[in-house]
Give the backbone structure.
Amino acid sequence: MRSILYAVLVASLFMVVLEFCYRYTGGVPSISPGKTHLEFQWKMKNSNESPLIYLVGDSRVDMGFGDRLFTEKFNELHGVKFKAVNAGLPAGSVSDIVTYIVGNHPNDKPGVIVINFTPASFCFFSESPGVPIPNLKMQDFVDHRIKNYLLEILYTNGTGLRMLFRHFQDYMKNGYRKRFAWYSRTLFPEGFIGLSGGYNDGSKMITDISPYQKMFSRIRSKSNYYMKRMDRAYNVIREAKNSGWAVILIRMPIGKKLLELESGLPGGFKAERVAYELSLEYIDYNSDPRTRYVPRGESHLKPAGAREMSGILAHDMSRLLENRKIYSELDNVE
Amino acid sequence: MVFNSTLFFITLAPFLLFYFSGRTRRSAVKKTGLLIYSYFFYGMWNPVFLLLIMISTITDYLAALGIVAYPGRKKVFITGSLVINLGLLGFFKYYNFFADTMALLLNSIGIEWSPSLTKILLPVGISFYTFQTLSYTIEVYRGRISAENNLLDVAVFVAFFPQLVAGPIVRASDFLPQLVKEPPICQNKIADGIFFILAGLFLKDVIADNIAPNVNYLFQNWKSNAIMDNWIAGMLFGVQIYGDFNGYSLIAIGLGRILGFDIQQNFDAPYGAAGFADFWRKWHISLSTWLRDYLYISLGGNRRGTARTYWNLMITMLIGGLWHGVNFMFIIWGGLHGVYLCGERLIRRVAHISFGNRAVQRMFLALGIVFTYLTVSITWIPFRAESAEQGIEMMKGLFWGNFDFQNSCLFDCVIIVVVFLCQCVSRHYDFFVLVERNNTLRFTAVTVILFCLYFFSGKRTDFIYFQF
């Protein structure tokens, strides 16, 4: 027994030393900057009530929409018990997410898909929910959550020796490199995610729209290529509508600088064009007086803003439903 | 629940605290706690299927008591036990196949029919615990053990969580006496148990889960596989299934040791086998001995003439294939092994060759080991294939096609060779015995295993044998 205990002590000591060396030389954790594939699929698997409202998009949805809060407020306002699902993924592609939802919806009846428009999620990002994981169980989900939490404490867990070797090799060659990373995730009970990031030298994250500037500059320089990707999103949304899904387009509130940047894109990459081409109900919350003081960063809502926005969305979706603009099949559900 | 998960160890810790508190571990309270935890463990899959385990338990408890109380009518009781247990197994395992086949046949002659029940979910581990409970009633019927009056003991035997879901299939004659005696808490046994668990996690998380994506890639791209790719696919899957299944068995044995129970080994370096009979003495030992003792011997074994022996061998191996599932490919797998065993028996009868020269003996032994390994690897292709077409084409592709590596890589070959060589070395040196006797070796092995588990664990996949 002693040999096992000594082995555990030695192995733990070695891992602690390696962890320290990794951090000392500028290593950063590799946590997912938002919902993971497994978490997405688990959410969908456990949402087999009817009817369902999916809010689809990238990290703006992942961090800006509280599906549990929305469900509560929506059902207070409206008689029929809907369930909302936050179907946002960091760097999520709308085409891939909608395709996944339509193809793997656990319920027989189609529901409502609310898409948050961002140019990136329509034509640039490519993150999808992944291949459906067979026999996904509660244990898999809990283990996944534990593992993700451990990644916030043990940066070297699961990295593999090859990656560590490359890291130390880079340090020997180039010295300490300033790196940005996400250091922790907060899973808010309302259903959205919060992230906290920073630099490995301890300096805080600067809210910066330069990544968007670079992205949009690429979109402008290769507009034909990115327009084809927009067309793919159009086709996917059309197919979803033809399969009985009600689709609504929204644009969640963002900061002034980013708003101005997005308005500089060619017309084909704008929400109004998407809504017109696909005949979608469209709500732009950037020009809505109710969202003027919703707490937000330049690109994402803050947690308080996510809570407020969820309430506003619940009210508006309920209104749309009452006006029967979106979902005639709901007559049968009611 | 699966063993290679943090949640399992989190739930195990309070159970072990309860189990080791107090002096006696075999008291009714402790056994009840063990049973409750076992049911909780199984219920995490699907609590509804606990009813099936309970039905099997009560059926065989009553059948065994009936056999002892009414010896003149013992055939009635054993028949009842067989019908109920095999009936449940047959329904859950084979209903979908027969319903679909019936629908296909009727539709082909113009009769519209669809099965009244939708697809039946297969309860996890039903093949394992059914065979386990049957071993109890059969042993009582044969007079080898007496019937247990205590339902709790029978329930613990059936539902014992370390081996409930994927074996080893434990015999009542081995396990039930252990429930009565009170072994002292032995640090060495606990240390052995921990080592077995770590070794099992290493085989599963580091070996099997890391090569799973390569195996999946080779089987998914089977149409573009060259000859060498198909061989690599078969052998690599052989490594994966060995790591996966033996990993699970070792964890089960380790947990059993910690709890004070001895469970038999399920694998004994099978890829170091020299001959097919030798292979089946080393691969999935609990199933092969169960089939030998309760099916092959019941059919007459080798006591009714040569032709009957071959017939019995083929039937036993075909049923062994069917045990895995009603699938043409499993039948081919079982049939191939049956043919191998019959062929080997025939050669031994016909060709009495012996070599005086030790070097020549060793050379032929080595050739025999390699030949056995290659021919067994061929059978892994139908076992893993997702369709009959794929299985047949890949098997053809072992001997016909492009002689090249299209989809495989050097890493795959290295893994196969290393595992094969380790298995050959294990013919002479039992690694676990060596570790038990040498603290330095144990220290080194545990350190390396922990290191590998931390840095090299692959993406978790389900245990392959859970689907059976």
